[in-house]
């Protein structure tokens, strides 16, 4: 079992839909949780990071962490074609700045 | 544009050769991280430097080495290259006090033939 599991997709949704992207993990020591967006042939771009459990919102993006279930989510509201990309979750143990990445979910938002 | 620069963008070389990848972090960032991204393994952490000193090592092969110079740019050296080393290599940097806020460069695509 990989430490971080992420469905590769692709996930195809119509423009304007609410998108839910998810990761599960096995290491209960993870305390920092990140979401990156990666466009084709580009470097990953940090969208947001959260510490421990709870929700964090930034514009159309909401990150949610449920440590009891070892499950994290990224919600995208009012999705746009420009959101089409691969979304990578990542997580770190407290005190270690080195993230363990999921394999990424490919998202396609069609007009 | 993240502010992190990497050169070259593409590199094609033969097995057994040695290459050097270069990274300049964002202005003011002291930490540099190197990652390898392949279809097989996804994004894997290789090594971290902070202000010239090695801070953490991940799944970095002995054939690979890195260093960070006084001007804070970093180089990743890959030697005795194998076909399996073909991948995207990313450099990232983070600001002081925000180690989880990593900014990635555009990457170097290495093809070993």
How is this structure best described in words?
The complex is a heterodimer of chains A (111) and B (113). With 111 residues, chain A is mainly beta. Chain A has no helices and eleven strands. In chain A, the strands form two sheets. In chain A, strands 2, 4, 5, 9, 10 and 11 form a six-stranded mixed beta sheet that branches. In chain A, strands 1-3-8-7-6 form a five-stranded antiparallel beta sheet, with no helix packed on it. In chain A, a hairpin with a 6-residue loop joins strand 4 (30-38) and strand 5 (45-51). Chain B has no helices and eleven strands. Chain B has strands at residues 5-7, 10-13, 19-24, 31-38, 42-50, 53-57, 64-68, 74-78, 87-94, 103-104, 108-112. In chain B, the strands form two sheets. In chain B, strands 2, 4, 5, 6, 9, 10 and 11 form a seven-stranded mixed beta sheet that branches. Chain B has a four-stranded antiparallel beta sheet with strand order 1-3-8-7, with no helix packed on it. In chain B, a hairpin with an 8-residue loop joins strand 9 and strand 10. Chain B is globular and about 40 Å long. The A-B interface holds A 32, 34, 36, 41-46, 49, 88, 90, 92, 96-104 and B 2, 4, 31, 33, 42-45, 48, 55-56, 58, 90, 92, 94, 99-107.
Quick structural overview:
In chain A, 0% of the residues lie in helices and 57% in strands. Chain A has 111 residues and is mainly β. The model of chain A has no long low-confidence stretch (mean pLDDT 93).
Rg over CA atoms of chain A: 13 Å
What is the β-strand count of chain B?
Answer: 11
Major sheet summary line of chain A: 6 strands, mixed
Distance between the termini of chain B: 31 Å
Residue share in β-strands of chain A: over 45%
Largest sheet of chain B: 7 strands, mixed
Please tally the β strands of chain A and state the result.
11
Per the principal axes of the C-alpha atoms, what is the gross shape of chain B? globular
Structural class of chain A: mainly beta
Termini gap of chain A: 37 Å
The H/E string of chain A reads: EEEEEEEEEEE
Order of helices and strands of chain B: EEEEEEEEEEE
**Poorly predicted regions of chain A:** none
Total of DSSP H or I helical runs spanning 4+ residues of chain B: 0
- Stretches with pLDDT under 50, minimum 5 residues of chain B: none
Please report which band the strand proportion of chain B falls in: under 5%, 5-15%, 15-25%, 25-35%, 35-45% or over 45%. Answer: over 45%
Number of helices of chain A: 0
* Multimeric organization: heterodimer
Structural class of chain B: mainly beta
